[in-house]
Each structure stands twice: as structure tokens, then as C-alpha cells.
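Much of what follows relies on a compact textual record of a protein's fold. The record below shows the convention in full:
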Amino acid sequence: MEPGKSRYSPLVSSLQEAEAAGLRIQVHVTRRWPLFDRSPRVTAAAWGRKFGLDFSRENTVLIYLNQRSRRFSILYTPDWEKKTGPRYWIEYAEALRSDLLSTQWERALALAVRTLMVTHSASGRGVNCGIGNATPG
């Protein structure tokens, strides 16, 4: 099946397109009780290690979402911040939070992945992408 044509989920389609574009974007969604998931950033880092993500490699992003607590964390490689600046990630996190509150979580994450693809594409052309490491709440 070609990238972007998944019959299963908009998130899977977005991840396939990102991979075809040379991005390494991992998404982890859990419903763990907040008691066992006190810090989304620490949990995201642990999942990054379990996934074998190499944050020294360019174009790597991990988005972690705890559905039950409605908290998330975004981990990314330093090359992203060089391309976009720190303000981008704050605005990116705010946009993801808004999307998670206004639509189904899977569609919100698909939109977040597509936003990263557009940002990556624009930054490759020397465009300054101003829209946030982000652990809100």
C-alpha cells in the first residue's frame, strides 16, 4: 500500500507519509492511570529508549500521549530546534493541546505529524518556521 493511503487510520497514514519523507516520528499512546505516569517527559524518554530511538540522529521526534490524564510530551532532536527555534515548539504544543480538546485524539495526532512534515519541508527550503521541548501542564 502506498504512503498516505492507509485504510486503517489517519494517524497511520500520516506516519507512513512522514517515513517516506525521511522523518523518524514515533507516537506512543497510553491509558495508564496518572498515578503510574507522574511525568509525561520521563515516561516519553523511557519509551524512546524502548523504541530504540536515536536522538542524535536527525529528524527524530517522539510524541507521547496519556489519554487518561490528557497530558503529553514531545521529544525531538537538536536539529529540529536549529531549524525552527524554541518558540515553534511552544506553539506546536499549544496547537496539539487545542486539537486534542477539540477532536478525536487520533486525528489530532495525525495533524501533529503532518504539521511536522510541512515544517520539515519548509525548513529545508530556508523558510523560518515560527509556530512548541514541550511538556505542557
Summary: The CA atoms of residues 36 and 43 lie 10 Å apart. The mean pLDDT is 82.
